[in-house]
Write a structure and sequence with these properties.
The protein is α/β, with parallel strands linked by helices and 401 residues long. The chain is built from 14 helices and 12 strands. The chain folds into 2 domains: 247 residues, 3-Layer(aba) Sandwich (Aspartate Aminotransferase, domain 2), CATH 3.40.640; 134 residues, Aspartate Aminotransferase, domain 1, CATH 3.90.1150.
Length: 401
């Protein structure tokens, strides 16, 4: 990285962790150390001709912060450099990113294929909202390649998936599904929020679009909402950006700045949280009041071989089923001291929730059963606390189940 180019340094030769610190930097004439917050909605021109040229040559300069903003652009460029993407656009939330990444591609008569084991809002967008506009939605068991093969034996426009899934941590074979999807003519959109870019790189397995709820691990401290969409430059400029430009799910400059600060410690936080999650999962697996544990880092996970090919660690999320159903799960949650009850995840603080009555409460009983969301299931997001403190807190709480 050239010292003389300190305002907009070239980070291409830096290693990934260093790119999370320096990628996308675009300092102002004040040469600030911390990235500036350009809290502005608009921009001024020296003459009418300059404004005309700016709009005629779209993207030549900043014209309106719904289209692009210097602080937001630094966040986008930094994550793109780390992820290995050519193009990125930050949105107001993770679901804004999901909706835009899907609906920018779909029209009446198109077809979308996705697993039924998804975060409920993603499922609603695909199964309920997209179908109102004449889109055919086909749902499969994401872990069953035979079902993917059958669903993708017909021409398809979009494949959407999340791996690991929310909340049961099912794993989708990214390489195999991307190959099948491309043969069917589909673009593959991957929600990589649970794995994070630290642990999994969907583009390396053939994904066309990757999205994040930056609210989760990228912020990592529960401060703000945000999302981001990444793709190659042609698809981003020609397909995604026109939809975003005219529908307006844009992130605020302040939130983009908070997320920039989060990126600086993302690698360190995620790896520390993974180490904690591994210790907690092993404790839970041996607890007499726990019926089953889902954690991608455990050898007992039914897709362990696939996980080793796709992910560099087991992740920060654990789900476990308490014997005794909903009453036992509630007694466990209410018995927690340090670990807090919250439906958020990816935070520096350890958080627990009951998916059947919170994040996935609107699913029918049939849909919950099909997705493995049982009355006794608890989702645990491991934070940065000492793993032994988390274990002792869970042990005390489970004694009340």
């Amino acid at each position: 990285m050239s010292r003389t180019d300190h305002r907009k340094p070239d980070v291409s030769a830096l290693r990934p962790r260093s790119q999370l610190i320096h990628g996308g930097t675009n300092r102002s004439a004040f040469d600030e150390t911390s990235e500036a917050i350009f809290q502005t909605s608009g921009y001024v021109y020296a003459a009418a001709e300059e404004a005309e040229a700016a709009f005629a040559n779209d993207g030549m300069r900043h014209v309106y912060s719904r289209f692009r903003n210097p602080t937001c652009a630094m966040f986008e460029d930094r994550l793109a450099a780390y992820e290995g993407a050519e193009w990125a656009y930050a949105t107001s939330s993770g679901m804004a990113a999901v909706f835009a990444a899907l609906m920018c591609q779909l029209k009446a008569g198109d077809r979308i294929v996705a697993p039924y084991n998804l975060f409920i809002s993603c499922l609603v967008v695909i199964r309920d909202i997209a179908t109102r506009f004449g889109v055919e939605a086909v749902l499969v068991d994401g872990t069953d390649l035979t079902q993917w093969e059958e669903a993708l034996s017909k021409p398809t426009t979009v494949v959407f998936l999340e791996t690991p899934s929310n909340p049961t941590l099912d794993i989708v074979d990214l390489g195999a599904v991307c190959e099948l999807a491309h043969k069917a003519g589909a673009k593959v959109v991957v929600d990589n929020a649970f794995a994070t870019p630290v642990l999994q790189r969907p583009f390396e397995f053939g994904a066309d679009v990757v999205i994040y709820s930056a609210t989760k691990h990228i912020d990592g401290q529960g401060r703000c909402l945000g999302g981001i969409i990444l793709s190659d430059k042609a698809f981003g400029n020609d397909v995604i950006h026109p939809f975003l430009r005219h529908t307006g799910p844009t992130i605020s400059p302040f939130n983009a700045w908070v997320l920039l600060k989060g990126l600086e410690t993302l690698d360190l936080r995620v790896n520390a949280m993974c180490a904690g999650a591994d210790a907690v999962a092993r404790f839970l697996e041996g607890h007499p009041k726990v019926a089953r544990v889902n954690y991608p880092g455990l050898d007992s996970h039914p897709q362990r071989a696939l996980i080793r090919r796709q992910m560099t660690a087991g992740g920060t999320m654990i789900t476990f089923e308490v014997k005794g159903g909903k009453d036992a799960a509630f007694a466990t949650l209410n018995g927690l001291g340090m670990v807090m009850i919250s439906n958020n995840l990816g935070d520096a603080k350890c958080l627990a929730t009951h998916p059947a009555t919170t994040t996935h409460c609107k699913l029918s009983d049939e849909d919950k059963a099909r997705a493995g969301i049982t009355p006794g299931l608890i989702r645990l997001s491991i934070g940065l606390e000492d793993p032994q403190d988390i274990i002792e807190d869970l042990d005390r709480a489970l004694s009340k189940a």
